[in-house]
Amino acid sequence: MDRDIFIQEYEETDENQNLNQIKLGWLSGEPSITRVLKEKKIGEEVIAVEIEHFNHPCKLILCDDVEDEKCCDGCGRSISTSFYYCVECNYILHKRCAELPRKTRHWAFKETFTLKPYTWFQCYFCCFHCSGLSYEKDAVVSLCCISCFVIPDSLTTKGHRHWVFFDHRFTFKCNICDDGHQKKGAFVCRLKECDHFTLDYTRLTLPNTAWCKNDEHPLVLTYRDDIHPHLDQCVCDICEESRDPNERFYYCGICDYAAHFLCVLSKYPFMKLGLTYEYEFHEHPLTLGKKDYYHDYLKCSVCDKYCKEVFLECTQPGCKYVIDWECRLRIWRSKGI
Length: 337
Prior knowledge:
This protein is mainly β. It has 3 domains: about 150 residues, no CATH class; about 55 residues, no CATH class; about 60 residues, Wheat Germ Agglutinin (Isolectin 2), domain 1. Helices cover about 10% and strands about 40% of the residues. It is built from 5 helices and 26 strands. Strands 3-9-10-11-12 form a 5-stranded antiparallel β-sheet. A hairpin with a 6-residue loop joins strand 10 and strand 11. The protein starts with a strand and ends with a helix.
């Protein structure tokens, strides 16, 4: 789902979502590209085809051919259009992610934000767990994923015919966090006829397509359930719990398969597998993995329960240390980290 973002407009198209299609009319500042090594003129436009980027030691080359499924090391989203890649490493960036400013301001805050790399962080806006580049507010540790950071304060979006405006007074329970805390701020339609239609950052930045192991086809983000008007109750085909027909969900029209967006994506859709972590409670480096058929019965070394979804596994040969990601978060929070 490509998103074209203008100074006052945010428009969704039908393609796969990535930041390569964002037009950042309001965002400016110190560039992330530290050096342009080679340029190419196409018509009246001069394009950087080889660059150096602050977050990678090797040169990056521009490419338009997407041959297989790749994820951006900046935003964690899938690659579908122009990107920069490293010929020596597995590092890859959407063209637009590479062009984001390294230091800039945000319309909701007074402080300057700095773009920094993180192996893991939880976005201040959408609360998804992410890895990659994050905007950090100076003087205060407040990390924002770049998908959320570039959204303007008023926009139009597919699924609603009117403009919505950010309202910092709006409070609601976070769908991602397990602590039941109230989030502040959402995009609200001010027209009475829309009965206070609201969208939070979580729903606003959902990928337009997603995959689920229970269906061989891509699932398409659907904005309301007008597909099953004959049913008394809409049900999620993953958790088998009821679904709100007015809530966004993922759907396969071929298989008539419908599911909550969180059941499809989980809380960790934008964490890159295979990243190495230095974990202060274990002597060896750990690598990030995700539960699959091979890891179905992998047990956490800390709580002795089966890993739920995402876990860290020791890279040292002979060491079988594994810690479930949720278990790791509990330890961190208990230590005040």
